[in-house]
Write a structure and sequence with these properties.
Layout: H1 5-11, E1 16-17, E2 23-24, E3 31-39, H2 45-51, E4 59-63, E5 71-73, H3 75-83, E6 88-95, H4 98-102, E7 107-113, E8 125-126, E9 130-132, E10 135-137, E11 142-146, E12 149-153, H5 155-166
Family: Belongs to the class II aldolase/RraA-like family.
Protein name: 4-hydroxy-4-methyl-2-oxoglutarate aldolase
Keywords: Lyase, Magnesium, Metal-binding
């Protein structure tokens, strides 16, 4: 399957692009899937809950408010995401256990790393509209991530892009 975020951005000029200094931490630097959103303010309780549910190739998009003082994903939650079939995690915040996460079959893009874990207070919201990096991200959209960045497409655009990438006709 062949696609790049620059090609997707060119083909779909109205596509949403999350322009932030993304760093890649997972074993897959290129990933895509249907979006599941979480707002997680210094608490990864909801991230952990979702990682322990079937992912079906989806991508968890986490808005940590750009917090660099806590990590919203570590090796245990990442391992759960892999075991449950998540394609990746995009975090507007930080990760930890970067050496372990790098060896996992999971795409992980985040702003940075921090060794400090979050408090577990059961806070956070799932399936909410997120806004960061100039992007509005809605649950159910599709997200494509590679070394060049993050592009969010609606269903018809994603269907066309994936069909083209596999050589199928739409």
């Amino acid at each position: 399957m062949s696609w790049t975020t620059p090609d997707l951005s060119d083909r779909f000029p109205q596509a949403t692009v999350a322009c932030l200094p993304w760093r890649h931490y997972g074993g897959h630097a290129r990933f895509h899937g249907r979006v599941v959103t979480v707002r997680a303010p210094a608490d990864n309780s909801r991230v952990r809950e979702l990682a322990n549910q079937p992912g079906h190739g989806r991508v968890l998009v986490v808005d940590g408010g750009g917090d660099t003082a806590h990590a919203l994903l570590g090796d245990l939650v990442a391992a759960a995401a892999v075991a449950n079939g998540w394609a990746g995690v995009v975090i507007h915040g930080c990760v930890r256990d970067v050496e372990a996460v790098a060896g996992m079959a999971l795409g992980v893009a985040a702003l940075g790393s921090c060794p400090r874990k979050t408090d577990k207070q059961g806070l956070g919201e799932v399936d909410v509209v997120l806004q960061f990096g100039g992007a509005r991200i809605v649950p159910g959209q599709w997200i494509f991530v590679d070394a060049s960045g993050v592009v969010v497409l609606d269903e018809p655009q994603a269907t066309a892009a994936l069909a083209e990438a596999t050589g199928a006709t739409v």
